[in-house]
Every structure is written in structure tokens, then in C-alpha cells.
Amino acid sequence: MREDLAIIVSELVTNGVMHGAGGAITLRARLGPTVRVEVWDDGPCFEPGPAAMPVGGVEGGRGLPLVAALALRWGVDGGRDGCTVWAEVGA
């Protein structure tokens, strides 16, 4: 579980750096029946699509499919001031 969580956090923070507007990135974690991590950035939000791995020599595009494969569930919450991508794994 720790390894999965480390990969998920790394992917979500990387996406925040790559797709945010260059401001702050916030990481929150909550322990309960599951471990929930949330990464907020000040960039535009998006509707999650099918989490399919890219094929061939395409660079990038593997982060969210990896998150989808490792997490119990994940999603995106948007607002006027940025985007939060979250994921939950078993505690």
C-alpha cells in the first residue's frame, strides 16, 4: 500500500506541476477507512476520460492510467480557483 500511495502522490503532484498555472500546489492526505490524497493546483480543471495507457513511443500520458490502476477510486473536483485530483487507497 505504501508503494502504491507513493506512486500515486508522485503522479498527481507531477501533473500539478506540468498542468497548473505556475502557482502553488497543495497536497492533503486524510487517514480513515482509506487513505485519501488530494492534490490541488491553480490550473484549469478537466473531465477525466478513459484511463488507457498510450501505445508506441508516445511520451507522457501514463500518469492517470497508473493512478486508476493503483487506486480504489479517484476523481477530479474543479472550481473557479483551480483543480483538485484525488485518489483513495486501502489503509
In short:
The chain has 91 residues and is an alpha+beta fold.
Describe the structure.
This protein is an alpha+beta fold and 91 residues long. It has helices spanning 2-19, 63-70, and strands at residues 25-31, 34-41, 73-79, 82-90. A four-stranded antiparallel beta sheet has the order 1-2-4-3, with helices on one face. It starts with a helix and ends with a strand.
Strand order in the largest sheet: 1-2-4-3
Radius of gyration: 13 Å
The average pLDDT score comes to 87
Number of helices: 2
β-sheet strand percentage: 25-35%
Number of strands: 4
The outline comes out as: globular
Sheet with the most strands, sense and barrel status: 4 strands, antiparallel
Q: Which residues form runs of ≥5 with pLDDT under 50?
A: none
Helix/strand class: alpha+beta
What is the terminal separation in angstroms?
Answer: 7 Å
Q: Share of helix among residues?
A: 25-40%
Give the ordered list of helices and strands. Answer: HEEHEE
